[in-house]
Design brief:
389 residues, alpha+beta, two-stranded antiparallel ribbon
Length: 389
């Protein structure tokens, strides 16, 4: 015979205090576990969203980031004149030659210094990235002048970066004339200006990268093969989404490692708590277990009933942990991207995969914490269990 499900649930309700404390411990561990995955996922989604499947970015061969790359003017012109590149109505290729540098600026609040990405772009930058970037306040910088536009995260997080404000870079004063919305992408954490003015100001003879819009996304392989085998080029071509995904991997892996270490330590406490709760349940219900056995319930039925109680504890705690972690999605934080060594703002992002992984993790804790007490309950002898003190 099988012990009904309601038996296990009723016993948990009877011991509400110990059940609640155990559930709370499991919920805390699952909260930390889910929050870590959400943080890593948020960083990856922010950077991947920075790219577009229609765009191709060209950087120096083996460069890990735009800050480590250089592309000469000759190479940039060769890229832009390829037949796969979209031409605008006036015949100008839809492309932007960018230079990327980092400057030290103070944060709002504590005034601590951090790296900020400044990107010099060509006139077509807003057009080629119109799905990722929208000017929301002020105006576009004027070509030939020391003017810039800034992302919303820059405006919110750094001192002096307000519309009409100024900052110094390479001994030159730059005026902020506009604010753009990067729609949750990495561009939110950047400053943009005219590349032809920035290059001489920072004493750079070449660009960091070239980004072009493809006429047909299926033509990427042909363009890549032609340019990477051109002896004049020495470049790598990547789809923009792939490039930004790679930019997230180092920091994402570090966040996941730290979170996994903390979660692993905390999980021991949660499993021990579940084990203590279940051992106490077995100790307090020995006569009840003896009665079940005398009524014909087999050892495996008793083991299953107690293991089910542990799984219910874990499932309730896991669900509460996931629900609590979902509230973090309203938060935005910033950290240093280890690939570019610059500050990037991003948020916690919960996905179905993360929720399922968190619940599975909770159930594993329930199994580990409840298995030994369940085995002990199933092995109690009927005569000893029914004996009264």
């Amino acid at each position: 015979m099988k012990i009904p499900f309601s038996y296990s649930f009723r016993n948990l309700w009877t011991r509400r205090l110990t059940t609640g404390l155990t559930v709370l411990g499991i919920a805390l561990v699952v909260f930390v576990f889910a929050a870590t995955l959400m943080l890593s996922n948020g960083l990856r989604e922010t950077l991947v969203a920075t790219g577009s499947d229609e765009n191709v970015i060209v950087v120096r061969k083996s460069a890990l980031s735009e800050g480590q790359s250089f592309v000469t003017r000759e190479q940039a012109n060769i890229v832009k004149t390829q037949p796969e590149v979209v031409a605008m109505s006036d015949g100008t290729p839809m492309a932007t030659s960018d230079v990327v540098v980092s400057i030290n600026v103070p944060k709002r609040g504590d005034g601590g210094l951090t790296n900020l990405v400044v990107r010099g772009v060509s006139g077509q930058a807003l057009e080629i990235r119109k799905r990722q970037v929208t000017l929301i306040d002020g105006r576009m910088y004027q070509a030939g002048l020391q003017e810039v536009i800034i992302g919303t995260a820059v405006h919110e997080r750094f001192q002096g970066f307000d519309l009409g404000g100024t900052f110094r870079m390479a001994g030159t004063v730059w005026t902020i004339v506009g604010i753009f919305d990067g729609h949750g992408t990495g561009f939110d954490s950047e400053v943009w200006g005219d590349v032809d003015i920035m290059l001489p100001a920072i004493r750079r003879p070449s660009f960091s990268s070239v980004t072009v819009r493809l006429q047909d996304t299926t033509s990427f392989k042909a363009l890549k093969a032609r340019l990477e085998h051109d002896p004049r080029m020495t470049v790598d071509l990547k789809r923009e989404k792939q490039y930004y995904d790679e930019q997230s991997q180092g920091t994402s892996a570090f966040i996941t490692f730290i979170g996994a270490t903390v979660t692993f330590i905390f999980s021991f406490g949660a499993m021990i708590g579940a084990m203590i709760t279940m051992y106490a349940a077995v100790s307090n219900r020995t006569q009840e277990i003896g009665t079940l056995r005398s009524l014909g319930f087999r050892r495996r039925s008793v083991l299953g009933a107690f293991l089910l109680e542990a799984l219910l504890l874990a499932l309730i705690g896991g669900a509460l942990g996931v629900i609590a972690s979902s509230a973090l999605q309203s938060l935005t934080i910033s950290t240093t991207n280890w690939t570019s060594f610059s500050e990037i703002a991003f948020g916690f992002r919960l996905s179905t995969g993360i929720a399922v992984a968190a619940l599975i993790f909770a159930l594993v804790m329930g199994v580990v914490g409840g298995f030994l007490p369940a085995v002990r309950a199933s092995r109690l002898k009927i005569v000893e269990a029914l004996r009264t003190e």
